[in-house]
Amino acid sequence: MSSIAAPNYRPLYDQIKILITQSLVAGEWKPGDVIPSEMELANRFQVSQGTVRKAIDALAAENILIRRQGKGTFVASHSQERSSTRFLRVFPDTGTHDSPSSHLLSLTRERADDESASRLDVRVGAGIFCIKRLLFFGGVPVIHDEIHIPSILFKGLDEGMIRNFTGSLYSFFESRFGVAMIRAEEHIKAVAASSEVAHHLGLSPGSPLLRVDRVAFTYGDKPVEWRRGLCHTNTFSYVTEMS
Amino acid sequence: MSSIAAPNYRPLYDQIKILITQSLVAGEWKPGDVIPSEMELANRFQVSQGTVRKAIDALAAENILIRRQGKGTFVASHSQERSSTRFLRVFPDTGTHDSPSSHLLSLTRERADDESASRLDVRVGAGIFCIKRLLFFGGVPVIHDEIHIPSILFKGLDEGMIRNFTGSLYSFFESRFGVAMIRAEEHIKAVAASSEVAHHLGLSPGSPLLRVDRVAFTYGDKPVEWRRGLCHTNTFSYVTEMS
DNA sequence: GAGTGGTCTAGACCACCCC
DNA sequence: GGGTGGTCTAGACCACTCT
Fold it and tell me: Whole-model pTM?
């Protein structure tokens, strides 16, 4: 019935989903913002409320939007308490999950090597930042992270900014640089600790560590972070679920 | 109405979902079967087609049912080619995923110790089977599995049945014993290989291995399998995604 | 053509939140 | 009270599969 879009094989709600995503990419609504109500969006896109609803349902299922009855639909943010550890799958074997604290080891500028370039989908030699840090749980160092991000997206990043920020790294990226992480893929191996990392984690060199390689994506499935985490799993485990 | 201040309200589609799940538990429809059409179910439960649809949508999102346009809605089965490796998250770093082949090491009857009993939600001392096997990828042993299942659900299990079955273990459990695995939780650590496991996997003792502890559940979130996999990750990785 | 799931719409009403 | 999302319904039509 309606209207303008001509010979499109995609369901309407899928097109609406894409339009909403484009508004997110364009920054029309930022993490934490309310987006317009279903009725407003239905009017804007000239479809029924039910169709908008289905598009939003799909985005909510991907944790890109968050619905709150009576209040509205919000853009997911890593700054919200509820999702500050959304991507952290390491849990203590006993007791509850204290929020980890971060200790910055170094921030350096580098040129992308083959691996970084391929993971981040940039040219070899492109400028990247490399962040090294330790994550402490209850005062104990558990994870050694080495984080690579393209410098073009994080202009002006320096050590002080990182140290002065309270909150998760993704919350930092989001609020200071407008880069929102919405999805990640992880490849996990077991490796022996190098003497350097063993020293940081208070272990003997050669101890078994979990090596978690992550590529994180922002809106539109664009890779914007590659990190390698080395995790000490004597009293912690990497937890996941499947169905 | 509601007795407590907490939201006691259950949407209709949620009740329908529960009714459908109960039919699955009761075995009214078995893995691979078509379930009645949306219209038939709507008539049976005296609700609209849309409400049945929403219940089925939820079950399809959990991979419990599978919708096929023009054909009907089917109970998910591990015997289908599409889902025979649904729970296998280990992939080669290069090349494609050959289906693994399994080599049975032993099948023994045991009594549940504290750990098995707690994971499987049975009494300490209850009868359980313990299956040990190796998984080979392209002729190379990669995973050593130690699988515990309550013997009451698998009466008559013997080595010959396992050896003669072609297909995945979960397909075997499903078709021979009517036990369908629908969900699993995994806890992962890095450990050093024991001499026994190192021997099976062709490694030196002390080599780092991924230790994957899994509890698998059937309909109604009932735990029915506990396994410990030890995985050699030199050329393979455990892959997972998050959002 | 008949039957299935898939899309889209429109309207009524409910539950929740805030003014 | 008036806004938001959440549920439920009913009906029309589309896309796919099988006979």
Answer: 0.94
pLDDT digit string, tens, across residues A94-107: 987 778 999 999 99
What's the mean per-residue pLDDT of chain B?
A: 94
Q: Rounded to 10 degrees, what is the CA torsion of A120, A124, A127, A131?
A: 50
Chain A 47-106 contacts with nucleic strand C (CB below 7 A): 47-51, 54, 68-71
Q: Answer whether B97 touches A (CB < 8 Å).
A: no
- Distance C10 C1' – B81 CA (angstroms): 42
The predicted-structure confidence for A166-197, as pLDDT tens digits, reads as follows 999 999 999 999 999 999 999 999 999 999 99
Residue B8: its pLDDT value, please?
63
Q: What tens digit of pLDDT does each residue of A65-92 get?
A: 999 999 999 999 999 877 778 999 999 9
Contacts with B21 from chain A: Cβ below 8 Å: none
Contacts of B190 in chain A (CB under 8 A): 190-191, 208-211, 231, 233
- pLDDT at position A178: 95
What pLDDT is recorded for position A84?
79
Predicted local distance difference test score (pLDDT) of residue B176: 96
> Does residue B1 carry a pLDDT above 60?
no
Contact A192 B186 (CB under 8 A): no
Please give the domain boundaries of chain A with CATH numbers for all domains: 12-75 (1.10.10.10), 81-238 (3.40.1410.10)
Q: Position B117: which residue type?
A: A
Mutate to test the interface with B, among A13, A62, A185, A189 (most CBs of B within 10 A): A189
Minimum CA–CA partner of B63 in chain A = A243
**Which nucleotides in chain C lie closer than 7 A to a protein CB?**
3-11, 15-18
Of B87, B187, B233, which has the smallest distance from its Cβ to A189's Cβ?
B233
